[in-house]
Amino acid sequence: MANYQRMTKAELIPALRGLEAQVASLESIAAERDRLSHELSVHQIELEAQNQELREAQRLVEESRDRYVDLYDFAPVGYVALDAGGHIQEINLTGASMLGVERSRLIGIPFSLYVARGDAGAFREHLRQSGQSQEPVTGELQVVVKEAQAIRVQMVSLALRDGGGGISRYRITMRDVTAHRRAEQALRESEERFRAIFEQAAVGVSQCVSHTGEYVRVNRKYCEIAGYAREELLTWRFQGITHPDDLEAELNLMQQLMEGKIRTFSMEKRLRRKDGEIVWVNLTVSSMWASGEEPTYHIAIIEDITERRQAIEDTKLRLAELEPVSEISTTLRAARTLGEMLPMLLDLTLEALHAMEGSIWLYDSVEDVLRPAASRGESEKDGTCPHQLKPGEGIVGAAFATGQPHLAGDFRLDQGASEAMCQRIPPGIGGAAIPIRAGEKVIGTFVINVSLPRKLTPSEVHLLTTLSELAGTAIQRIMLREEVERRAAELEQRVIQRTAELSQREAALEAANAKLTELDRMKSQFVSNVSHELRTPITTIKLYASLLRRGPPERRDQFLDALEQEANRQAHLIEEILQVSRIDSGRLDLHYAPYALNELAEASVVSREPLAAEKGVTLACKPLKPGPTVSVDRVRTLQVIDNLVENALWYTPTGGQVSVATGTAEADGQIWATLSVTDTGMGIPKDELPRIFERFFRGEKPREMQLPGTGLGLAIVKDIVDLHGWRVTVESQVGGGSTFTVWMPLA
Ligand code: ADP
Questions:
Q1: Pocket of ligand 1 from Cβ distances under 6 Å
Q2: Distance from the CA of 462 to the center of ligand 1, in angstroms?
Q3: I need a labelling partner for 548 at 20 to 30 A (CA). Which of 129, 295, 430, 534 fits?
Q4: DSSP string spanning 607-626?
Q5: pLDDT tens digit sequence for 606-637
Q6: Residues 418-431: what's their mean pLDDT?
Q7: Please, are residues 643 and 572 in contact by the beta-carbon 8 Å criterion?
Q8: Do residues 200 and 191 touch, judged by C-beta distance below 8 A?
């Protein structure tokens, strides 16, 4: 008994046929059925059992077919069968749903209707190719689906042939690759974007093999910073262009990166460019690896920070420079004079620059030359430093005249070197001559010498320039202060002078004031004296007038004489008062002319002889022969002599002698003409001597003796003497006589 359950469909069909033959044979032997009924019954039972098996087998077959149909319909790809003309014969559910059309409506429709217009040719070509090939042919098309949307479909087509070798149908699988292609496109675009970013980045970007350091790719900026062409750089490793001093630190960090200890690092390092130049870069390195993998590549980003580093270096340098500058500036501020400040500045500068020689020259605008205001070094010791230079002469003059720093490795080889300078300066001496400015004006030159091979570095020259500026300011400050001090001293001097002048004037004013007060007092005294003196004779005149009227007639002559005498006195007094008043009011004009002094003396003696005779006094003239000539007002001079002679005659008792002498004498380094009136009279007491020239002063004795007089004679003498610019002196002894001398300049 066959086991149908284990049979294939192919095996079952012949088995079934066998069974049918057996049934036919059983029918044909129906006659023998009775005989064999028992047997039949047995067989029937067997047959029943076989039938049962057969039905079971059929059910299994149907189930299996349904499964295949499902597989076909719900496969992940679309299956479509086209006839030779390209019409759809069959299509699975996946295929129909791809096209968005119900399956039953697709049968018999040309597939090309669903192909996008632009791909129609491509579709025809695809069918043609698969028609020519024994193998499946792959192609890709745009297929228009419902609502005019297009999807991208990958087609694998196999042409099936009939017995005659013609194409009977095409079996095609369709795969919707729209999403796949989009993803690919996005990937491509993203890649392109990455490339653009990588390439056009403003920073240098490189990709290196982590273990070796070989460059895999570098962007334009990276090449630019490193100074290599891209092709050159791609044959290098990063270690090759890294400055050896920075390499160890970087390799150390790279090691940590590869061991996964750090994910990224940044550092500043130096690159050695192809041209040998050193560039400072800021480096940031990150690893590239998928999770769980060993890092194989790393990305390095570099940024050129040379300028920034340079700025920092410059700042550091400036700070280092500023230190001596600030120190020097503080020291200079303490200096009060140029003589104190400039040598100090020079010494400090030489110290700061580690130089041995230098000088500071200042311009003298009066003589248009530059002179050394301070110098240090050999030329100072041996005296070869010139005492002055013209603007433009030598490097000192050149720096001054152009206002530009003058630098030279060797002064003797310099263009500006004069012959004298070459003889003076030994070879191999160079340095810098920097103009010193005060505001806009160049006021001198600062020179620092160094011996080769030492040369001043740019930063030393910069420092020197700064110090020159400092010097300019300090010089200006001191000059200003000196000027201010000089002016202050001048002003003080002027104030002192002015104060002295003022106090002098004040004293003069005080004196004038005192004089005025005195004059005022004298005037009051004068007025009261005048009134008194005038009143006395008038009283006497009135007295004699009444005596004339009422007295005895025989004494009338006597009264008349007395009256005349008083009237004369009165007239004399009035004459003298008028004279004094004229002198006081400045109305007395002098008319100078040269006269022989002897002649004037003799004229006076002759005119007073009657009075001498009356008084019984000898009057003599003792002229010096030849006598001096004087330039005088004749009338006033005679008045002086007359007054003195009259006084001598009045104050000398009868029998006495009066003499008038002329002569010359030396006093105060000058020869004078002198006129002396000497008497042998009563003399003048010492206490009265200072007062005898005062107006209205009369000696005590003359008043007691009631000698006539006004007390104005000597005052008039003094006034006339003063008006002429002469002097009058007196020597006297009580009881021994007096000598009055008038001193006149020789004509
Ligand atoms: P007066 O002679 O009118 O008194 P003066 O001014 O001439 O006035 O003289 C002033 C005074 O000086 C006199 O009063 C007198 O005391 C004194 N004096 C002047 N001349 C002489 C003299 N030759 N001898 C003595 N005393 C004199």
A1: 647-648, 651, 679, 681-684, 692, 697-699, 702, 709-715, 738
A2: 97
A3: 534
A4: HHHHHHHHHT-EEEEE--SS
A5: 999 999 999 999 999 999 999 999 999 999 99
A6: 70
A7: no
A8: no
